[in-house]
Amino acid sequence: xxLRGVLHEASGVRVVSDDLEAEDFRxxxxxxxxxxxxxxxxxxxxxxxxxxxxxPELHDAFxxxxxxxxxxxxxxxxxxxxxxxxxxxPGNRPRDEFVLAYGESGVMVQLDVVPDxxxxxxxxxxxxxxx
Length: 131
Hints:
Keywords: DNA-binding, Transcription, Transcription regulation. Pfam families: HTH_20 (PF12840). The chain is α+β, with helices and mostly antiparallel strands. It has helices at residues 25-34, 38-50, 55-59, 66-78; strands spanning 2-8, 13-21, 53-54, 82-88, 94-100, 107-114, 117-124. The strands form two sheets. Strands 1-2-7-6 form a four-stranded mixed beta sheet, covered by helices on one side. It has a three-stranded antiparallel beta sheet with strand order 3-5-4. The protein is globular and about 45 Å long.
């Protein structure tokens, strides 16, 4: 069964999904849930512009705790939107660096940011690099 869905949020977020198989709904629900948070939407935008980037590097752009940044980055990773790798930071301390997960989850996310408006287009992807 192929479906096309549009989810409109009061916050001005529009999520469009195309050609979803019915059995993929559980995985797609993780993506939609991850995109419900304004903080996670902004994190996704920041990671796309600054990748690779760590939680402490992102902290200055947000008015939330470092722990909250890390938790939200992990939720985006669990949804298949980000990928992390363990790297050595200042003082040779280990830290996770995040990048967009192009083509790894089978989901393509296109984020177009217009002041006070976000558009997301979701669909299956076999592309291993950014558009």
